[in-house]
Structure formats: structure tokens, C-alpha cells
Description:
The complex is a heterodimer of chains A (149) and B (237).
Chain A: E1 9-12, H1 16-28, E2 35-38, H2 41-48, E3 65-68, H3 77-86, E4 95-99, H4 104-112, E5 117-120, H5 125-142
Parallel strand pairs in A: 1-2, 1-3, 3-4, 4-5
Chain B: H1 3-45, H2 52-81, E1 88-92, H3 93-105, E2 114-117, E3 122-126, H4 127-145, E4 152-160, E5 163-170, H5 180-183, H6 203-213, E6 217-223, E7 227-233
Parallel strand pairs in B: 2-4
Antiparallel strand pairs in B: 1-3, 4-5, 5-7, 6-7
Amino acid sequence: MFNDTSKTILLVEDNPDDVALTLRAFKKNNIMNTVVIAKDGAEALDYIYCKGDHVDRDIADTPQMILLDLKLPKVNGLEVLKAIRDDERTRLLPVIILTSSNEQQDLLDGYSLGANSYIRKPVDFDQFTEAVRQLGLYWLVLNIGPDEA
Amino acid sequence: MKETDCRRMIDELNRELDQLLYAISHDLRAPLRAIDGFSQAVLEDYSDVLDDTGRDYLERVRGGGRQVNSYIDGLLLISRESRGEMDVEEVNLSSLAHEMGALVAARYEDHAPEFRVAENIIARADRRLMRFFLEKLLDNAWKFTNPVRGACVEFDQIEQDGKQVVFVRDNGVGFDMHYAKERLFGAFQRMHSDDDFEGIGVGLATAKRIINRHGGQLWAESETDRGTTFFFSLGEE
């Protein structure tokens, strides 16, 4: 059991403060994987499917874990999730919804569309760091991804 | 205006109010996360250049943020508890009192007032809302009998003008009725200072909203150092 730090984490988050806090939480928990930031849903899809600014990326180099906020500009989180699940090449990618939304409907929609997990962002930073630590431990170390031998 | 139109307008306004409360509360969380998170970040990453005063100031920033967060929780509580559809049925309030009493008692490690529940108090109400309502009243009773020896909380009913009136009575610290008029059921209004009793004062505001939804009445009688009784009746439904 170990963390293959060559694998990337895709963080889809439009709030720059939350991005900074999440990156700091990764650092504090010694999660050394490359973190790619997509600040809206369109950018997230461009990254995953190697379009737009990411046209030279290798599509087989899939992220180890996708942290997905729901309220995003251009293409919202649930639409990104649906696109990922509808495509054969990315259908199995682990997607963790990390959102401030308290809405029951978002929770139901998230799971219905095939999210692996749904986490609400805590306001307290210590709790937030702890949540990130647990996410890292589970999804990067414990969990066996769909493309691992 | 016809009564049905009036009713519909009130319901619509209530719905909008709840949605507004929810939206405001929700949008405030993100900046609060920034306030708490970055204060903590400075405390941790720059601890070598911060003196005690600097640390103290940053802790106050975090404290302020936490308080705002508590208020938001309170606002959401008020809005959420009033948002659902009412599901009115025959409810055994005595059973609920036992259940919620046990829940509340578990929160207080060193405080166990005598709890007397009169059996078979039945009323037509929304069970889910009544659970929340009784929990609020009982938690109040527990909280304000905490400093008292021989503490006792009672749940019973009386008949007043031919109507069923249920009450939660405690022999705790009570409050001065003089200040009660507007303050008692106002959101965030409190009858005691922060130093004496923790709490942000939304419980009773929510309790009042619940009774309003039932078309009932909620009122209190109290005397400083003698105790408090909260009376409520539920509307005909």
C-alpha cells in the first residue's frame, strides 16, 4: 500500500481561496501528487479529454482522483460528472464531490450520476485539513483504482 | 381579499423567506472558510515571527468567524425546520417527551434533573416538527436547571378555556418576565448573558415557528430563581 505520487489529482474548483486552502491541506498532509486545477467545468473537461489548452496531453494518463465542486461556471459539477460517466474512456474514474452545498437534491443527483463519494466542505480549517487527510489516505493509498493491476 | 388567496400569499411569502435565508446562509460559508483557514495558516506558517499579541489577534479573527458560522447554523435551522410539508396525525406527545428527554439528558454528563412525564398526552400534530419542538423546550429546561440542586422538569397538560394546553415546567433559574415581552421568541434574542449560559438563542424562535405552523399558541411564565413554564396549545386541524 503506497501512494504513487506520479499520479495526478484533478481539483475542479472555481473559488481561488478554496483552491489555496485545499492545496495547503494536501501539503500539510504530505500529499505530494501533482495537483491540476480546473477553475470551471469546461476547463475540467478540456483537461480530461485533452482538448483546448490540454490538446497535447496523453488521454491515457488519467487522474488518480477527481475532486469536484458542484457550483462551477460554464459547465457545472453535475454536468461534468455526467460527461465523465457517459464516456467509455473515463467511465470508471474516481470522482469525489467536494462541495459547500447542503442541498439534499445535489446529494441525490451526485450519487445518481455515479459519484463515488460526497463530502461537504467544513468551514473550520482544522476539520477541512482532516477531511483532506482522510480523502488522501483513502483514495490515494487504500483504494485500488480501476486501472491498477 | 379572499381568505384562500390570503393563505396562499402567506404560504408563498414564507417559502420565499425560507429560500432567502437558505441562500444567504449558504453563500456566507465560503468566505468564512477563507477567514478561518487563512488565519490558521498564518498562525501555523508564521509562528516564528508572531508574538503573543499577534497570535491573540488572529485567534480573535477565528473566533469571530466561528460565531458567524454559529449564527448561520441557527438561520438554517429556522429556515429548514419550517420548509417541509406538514404531515398531521395523532401523536402521543408523552412518548415523544420520553424520547427527546433521553436525547437531551445524554448531552449533560453531570446533570440529571428528575423528569416527570404525564402519560397519554395525545394531540394532532406533525410528528417530525413536534420532536424538534420538544427537544428545544426540554433542552432549555435541562440547561436552565443545571446550576440548581433538586432540579426537576415536568411534562404535563391542563385544560384552559376548554382547550388542551401542554406544558414543560422546570424549577431552574427562570428569567425576569419584564424583559420577556418582545425578546423571548425573537431569533437570537437571549434572556441570559453569554457568560452564564452558552447558546445563540434560535431554539425558541424555531419553536415558535413550529407552533405557528400548527395554528397554535406558545407562551411562557417565569420567575427569577423559581423556574419557568412553557405552555403550548395546538390549533384545531
